[in-house]
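Quick start: read one record
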Amino acid sequence: MSVEFIGYVSHQESSEIHLPEGAAVNPPWIATVAQAHEYGGFDRVLIAHSSASPDGLQIASFVAHQTQRLGILLAHRPGFIAPTLAARQLATLDHFSAGRAAVHIISGGDDVEQQRDGDWLTHDERYRRTDEYLDIVKRAWTSNAPFDHEGAFYRVAGHRSQVRPLQQPHLPVYFGGSSEAAIAVAGKHADVFALWGESLDAVRETIARVRAAAAVHGRAQQIRFSLSLRPILAPTEDAAWARAESILARAQEVVARSPNFTRRPKDPQNEGSKRLLAEAAKGKVVDTRLWTGITALTRAAGNSTALVGTPQQVADALLEYRKLGVSTFLIRGFDPLEDALAYGRDLLPLVRAAVAKEEAALRAA
């Protein structure tokens, strides 16, 4: 099991310590951050999705044009376009990116967020729809003959696509969601199951649940795992913790003013955020260096837990998660551009060197 690093490219500069300013779509910013990740040695970048954000597919195409090697992980929410059309769009992106595309399926854990785009299905109905949606998408990617489909959410007659993904048999499918309904669908469809940054014990428990769901479909050993974290690095441990507290102080004003956070419900519906808040309830620091300060402040607004320490200490913490079965780390900073460069310079080489050493020892044995 090797290691993969995924960064994050937003449509404009913003974070918990940076109020969004200027144009909602900032092409120079997007290009600069994407190229910084490529320069830093990241494998992919995530392009996120929300009911208010610019169109991710167009951003993904732009990122592909601005880079040569960097992979793209496009967040995609089933239910708003036909699955056959989504299959063609994603396959076309794979061609324009020379086989660098992957899709991150986000079914949606918040009723209010879904309803902003006109989706009134319940939580569990959304995951049943996702299951059917992915059945059709994968069939459109792989079928050699026209096919029909009649299900609870979709009817298709005689579909056949002229475009297939360059990657065979299909694009890598990443999958998010921590509820029982989500894990059941992930067990069937996910190549990579994505977790937010929880404690070692919580990650171990989730991996076991997902593998059990995948075992139903004979996929227990095929599914891989991704963990999302916000590393905070400094030359010394004391300086890293001081930087974390500085970030928290700056974030208090930004979170109170930014529309990215003021629109969030006080009590999140989605299971992933509830799990992060349970970690935050244990204290500001969980395990050795998992910091929950921003999680508590934002009421777990997405990927918000941080690993705090020197580059070597954070690398060692990542390797502890790797021992549990995590092979992908989705990391992004509170200073998006500067932190991406710092990770590429100071953190990624340490983790990759440790993994290479381990792999060499296994080959020798």
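Residues 4-364 form a domain with the TIM Barrel fold (CATH 3.20.20.30).
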